[in-house]
Amino acid sequence: MKNNNTGNYNAEAIQILEGLEAVRRRPGMYVGGTDTKALHHLIYEVVDNSIDEALAGSATEIQIIINPDDSVTVKDDGRGIPVGIHPEKKISALQVVMTVLHAGGKFGGGSYKVSGGLHGVGVSAVNALSEWCEVTVKRDNKIYFQRYEKGLPQEDVKVVGTYKGEQTGTSTTFRYDRSIFLEDATFRFETLAQRFREMAFVTRGVTIKLADNRTGKEMTFHFEGGIASFARYVNRNREVLHPMIYGEKEIAGVNIEFAVQYTDAYSESIYSFANTINTGDGGTHLTGLRAAITRCINDYGRKSGLLRDSDANFTGEDTREGLTGIISVKHPDPQFESQTKVKLMNADVQTYTQQVVGDTISTFLDENPSAGKAIIQKCLTSARARDAAKKARDLVIRKSALESMTLPGKLADCSERDSSKTEMYIVEGESAGGSAKQGRDRHFQAILPLRGKILNTERARLDKILGNREVRALVSALGTGIGDSFDLKGLRYGKVIIMTDADVDGAHIRTLLLTFFFRYMQPLIEAGHLYIAQPPLYRISYRNQISYAYSDLEMERMVEKIGGKNKVNISRYKGLGEMNPEQLWETTMNPENRTLLQVEVEDAVEADQTFDMLMGSLVPPRRRFIQTHAKEVRNLDV
Prior knowledge:
about 650 residues; Ribosomal Protein S5, domain 2; 3 domains; 5-stranded mixed β-sheet; globular
């Protein structure tokens, strides 16, 4: 039976959100949400406009300044946003750009041949989501100014000064609206630095300066080598197998630029860009790059006789092991999957990319037979390892199928079957595992104790990794499979929580596990399922009261509040096994009290390099890192 008592649904119920009100009501549709990631997106939208000026050959320098009050200033030396009266709107073109969605100079094709900020909602959305925004334009020897509050102009565009010479440009300063964004949302210098480093790589010749006036940090990026420099940057801690393969060509108005190089690593590092925007989910340009690489290597292997008649063709997975690849396309009419532009959809780009990449790599292999032989050998080794890994993976599945419902014997499972409500704690050692099993809530919490340290997966192929008993137990318990058979739909636990001791050994085990998840189960991290538990460092007892501190600073504050160290008894926990089950539950496992850190990959390039440097086979980069940061070490076990 229909329920008709749900309020009046008539003409009056249809709401029209005027101007920028739609952006303020639904920020997720325009900048992806209201968290720290969305906050950074505000800066990217403004900078995209300056990058478009650079792509048009009209700007050479862009400055991004985080001011002490958390407002942000973006300056460029481009042509300056037009300020004349718009023929239709009858107001300044600057005001149109800042207050009207889908307004800008990127639709007709005359002002910009290529643009990253294509949708025209960028700077107007930023304006809408700001407490206030001020724009200064230098153009035609006059300086123009306008201020907005919550997207609304506070005055007409006015002339506030004059200047001499050819200098032009735009300066935008905005302060994000604290009533819209989450309380803990804040700008991170490192996140911005990585984004602008990438932009400078793919916009050859432009200078991007980033300054954080809150901390005094500054960085400047300028790369004449373009994405070839980017690939060298990614490979700086790796042994490379051959010289860089680089190509660039324009087809039908679409510019294709790529660089690829094989290394001694076991994982791939491929990054794709469309109109300088990092397309994290790839798209047609990435598909074209991968397809061309696989086809070229198979063709060369057959032609050179390095692949015998009895050898099967390489798969895409075989040809991507140890590959560093950068693909950057500049398209006059890019089609993205969403406003946040994480996936390129243009079908023509795949064809053009395959053509440019295929021609360049084929020529390189013909002219460099020693490099060709090294690449084929790398792929052959990868193919053999893949076959061995498939057998090992099938063995894991077959073996576990014969054991209790595909679950390892050491897993203490929970009774709840709804994965959105369940948690699995990965615990080091039997004693901590025993405490965790007794202290947990059996209804929704599972415990998987690991014996000793798992294999360093940065220095091993998948076939060897699957030979490790602890890794097999972990893969089996999660239910997702691994490698090319990984499927997030099979995940049995909504939260996968790493719970290790607060000492050097615990940190090492945690790092080994994070390396494994990053290299072989990255979608698990990207979907927000991986967490790190935060057990307390100190137990503080005073009279009949017991408190727990999770950091040195928290401990000192607690002691000071009580009245000094003479009055309290302080115990430092070395391991989880030192806690009885009730203490472990109350401090680390009880959802009401515990602190969990969610593992995120904000910067895939930096994470890739960090794991490579800390866990890889080359010693000098690791030694440099240790020597540089030795004085920052705290709580080192002696």
